[in-house]
Amino acid sequence: MTWTLSNHSLSQEDLLNLESLFALGNGYLGVRGNFEEGYLDGLTSIRGTYQNAFHDLVEIPYGEKLYGFPDTEQKLLNSIDAQTVRIFLGEEEEPFSLFAGDILSYERLLHLDQGFSERIIHWRSPAGKEVRLHFRRCISFTTRELFAIDIKIEPINFFGAVKIVSTVNGDVSNYVGLNDPRVSSDHGKRLRVSQTGMKDEMIFVLAETVASKLKTVCVSQHCIKNIDYNCDLTHAGSHSECTMTFQLTKPVQFTKWNIYVDTLRHEGNLIEKGIELQRTFETKTFDDLLAIQKQYVTNFWEMANITIDGDDALQEGIRFNLYQLLQSVGRDEYSNIAAKGLTGEGYGGHYFWDTEIYMIPVFLLTKPEMAKRLLIYRYKKLEAARSRAKEMGHKQGALFPWRTISGAECSSYFPSGSAQYHISGDIAYSYIQYFLATGDWPFLKQYGAEMLVETARLWIDVGHYHDEKFKIDAVTGPDEYTCVINNNYYTNAIAKYNLLWAYKACKLIKDKDSEAFLKIFSHLALSDDEIIDWKKAGEAMYLPYDEKLKINPQDDTFLQKAVWDFDNTPTENYPLLLHYHPLTLYRYQVCKQADTVLAHFLLEDEQDFDTIKNSYDYYEKITTHDSSLSSCIFSIMASKIGYHEKAYDYFIETARLDLDNTHGNTKDGLHMANMGGAWMAIVFGFAGLRIKETGLSLEPIIPKQWQRLTFRLQYQNRKLEVIMEQHQVQLTLLDGEALSLKLCGQEVFLQMEQPIFIKKQLQAIIFDLDGVITNTAEFHYQAWKQLADKLNIPFNREFNEELKGISRMESLEKILIHGNRQNDFSNSEKMMLAAEKNQQYIKLIEELTPADILPGIKQLIRDCKKNKIMLALASASKNAGTVMKALELENDFDVVVDAKTIQNGKPDPEIFLTAANLLNVEVSSCIGIEDAAAGIKAIKAAGMYAVGVGKKETFEKADYVVEKNDELVFEEIIKHYYANA
């Protein structure tokens, strides 16, 4: 059931993970999925209740404290516990426990489409008393302070006395984890009970933090419907209790209503405020609450739902992720989205740049009003960011913290924390994206302009000119395994975007509303020269580029380091941060997460396709993905480049990371940024959606494993629906004014009630040369045979098959290994042997004429031309041009890609991707034709339709196979392409 997360077994090993997975929240209040009755003594539980942004201040201990190091950190506190409800059966008061007696049936469910969780249990006590228990719990989306528990007790063979003891407990502490920087290692108990009591048949606990002096109260009331009962309210020490006793003769329903109120959001007497809110529920039932909850959740899913036809596990994953984001997103000026949401205590409940880059995009295109609130939270912390910039020695600008709750920096380790200056650029980027996606001019004038100005000012103060380039030194990019370096590509690129947009925003506002501009100009003490300086610095921004590798280096010195020894790193040593000193990691080329690759996603127009692809290939080999922020970005960029199998594999890692606990720390809370990243991998990856100044565009390519993908989005006061299938894409305007956009590279005009259908069309056929167009394979065989005979190495046609589709040097190496002579020649001697073979080969191909074109190929070429299908050649031979000229085909092909123009040979997809890129067509609109297994693998890895020439058993991955070249008939190829692509 893809709308329901279910658990049907009680495994002690999984309890902590399930507490996180079954957590409930509403953006303000969060409760972990603990059992109301508790666990068996000795079992670890992180029994957590959290109020977003409700924190204490904790002194940071330093052995040596230097200037600018934060004095304190803010820590999200485990708040008053109202989860506990214990049930006792019979005069002897046998306690209900899943760890005693017999569990006759057990089911635990989280209803993503209804907004509540439940446990349904058939239990027999050690003394033989049988009951059914139905636990339901709900945290209201419409009344943020409300957490309700409902328990139905149904007798099976037991009729008699029952006692229910409901507790509100202020004796709570935070979870402490040793030797893991992702979990707090100290400061467990920071909440002190100041008052317990009862009033108006309600019980309460009031508590205060140790240092921040924030206060919170939990007020609870209880009811049992349609049965006589006795109720005794008590309070002592740090807790208050309600004890209810009755005779169980029929099913009984017990409800506990809990209200949480704090001094961040409420003034006056908290206890009275809690009681006042409780009274609004005196005539309500739990089912009334669920009806309102259902309505709210249904409204959310109207735009947020993603439907995947073809994989129930991934469908469950994406819906679970989106629901948890809904449960965790802060909805007021005090709160944001913590790294673990409200599901656990990992990272101290802090907010990171994860929000702007990984989570805001989800809400921006589904619930833009929620994205707006998150941006306003950052605006409210702007003054703190100005102060932090001054503290860090800057004369101007706003420096936002790496991790925070109230706005102050919490990071005590500056190399991978405070040095991440890119965060100010990330926040500016999200403001720009919000404006582009919504067209919200009032927001740009009231909030956006000031944010862009202050972040731009920071870059001017941080950077400097050198060799007529604007450079930024001593910063850390997103990759936390490479710290405090000069000219981090990501940082410089985001700073450039920030600077140019600050200039642009001022100009836009000035042109559109001069009065508003003058107010901003005056309020921020701007000058025309300062605004021009932003443009000048942005245009002069230095973006590292390596001519030899044709990539963007991560920073000035990254490529000078040795590459990490991945082959000899034990699997159990990942994540590396838990097993190696930071300095060890800093000395190597090893990335914790996407850095330059992330910049290429966010700011793809800064580089051409080849640089983006080459960089991806380079960084993929040295990225550990120890951060959960990484795989989704590699999935998105794999989709862009055309590595569709990789894109899908990375998406799988992302979509079920917490459900399958692949990072091994789900117990500490769910990975919120990764959850946003899963949505991004679909919308920005598979659907190829981009929002730029030029408007909205989509380049959709559905994974071959799925039949259909459907999602909706909001864009500039419009609602759109995208349906992707294997053969077509449908785009519908559900609400709003007509608009122009790009779909599959075409300019389209979308209107209400006039859906646009774009069918998948074949645009190009990419041919291999040897064995497909002509039989130069025979010449290769003869040339290699002559060389092998000279070296006294046995060589026959059967072994020659192993050389198909691979480079000359790779072929030579195989031959030498075959003859056990791989160590007899130096590299220069091997080069000479390869050249000798090539000279012989050239002599042979000089005899080629058009008569050597294989049967059926001329007609296939004519038919392609007739049907306006573009043609490309993708050959591993460096002599492809010579061969094509001899065959008199050089003018028939639009593009020729050979071994001289690529870095990686087949089965790497580079040669086919390069051909598609040069043709300027999507890979899904291409057919590749090959006669070698390595070539077929390359075609499929590129995401193209693969046609094999030869025996079927040779081409397991081919989409269509013919035995002979003359069976390459245009009509048959087209028919199979549209039927099976």
UniProtKB/TrEMBL annotation:
Active-site residues, Swiss-Prot/TrEMBL: D768 (nucleophile), D770 (proton donor/acceptor)
Residue ranges annotated for the Glycoside hydrolase family 65 N-terminal domain, each copy included: 8-256
Residues reported in the UniProt entry to bind substrate: 768-770, 784, 803-808, 811, 837, 875-879, 906
Pfam families reported in the protein's UniProt record: Glyco_hydro_65C (PF03633), Glyco_hydro_65m (PF03632), Glyco_hydro_65N (PF03636), Hydrolase (PF00702)
GO annotation (BP), single: carbohydrate metabolic process
Site (Important for catalytic activity and assists the phosphoryl transfer reaction to Asp8 by balancing charge and orienting the reacting groups): S875, K906
GO function terms (MF aspect): beta-phosphoglucomutase activity; carbohydrate binding; glycosyltransferase activity; hydrolase activity, hydrolyzing O-glycosyl compounds; magnesium ion binding
Ranges in coiled-coil conformation: none
Keywords: Hydrolase, Magnesium, Metal-binding
Binding site for Mg(2+): D768, D770, E930, D931
UniProt record similarity statement: Belongs to the HAD-like hydrolase superfamily. CbbY/CbbZ/Gph/YieH family.
Listed name of the protein: Glycoside hydrolase family protein
Manner of cofactor binding, per the entry note: Binds 2 magnesium ions per subunit.
Cofactor: Mg(2+)
Gene3D superfamilies: 1.50.10.10, Glycoside hydrolase, family 65, N-terminal domain, HAD superfamily/HAD-like, Maltose phosphorylase, domain 3, Putative phosphatase, domain 2
Domain Glycoside hydrolase family 65 central catalytic residue range list: 319-680
Domain Glycoside hydrolase family 65 C-terminal: 689-748
Sequence intervals crossing the membrane: none
Source organism, top-level taxon: Bacteria
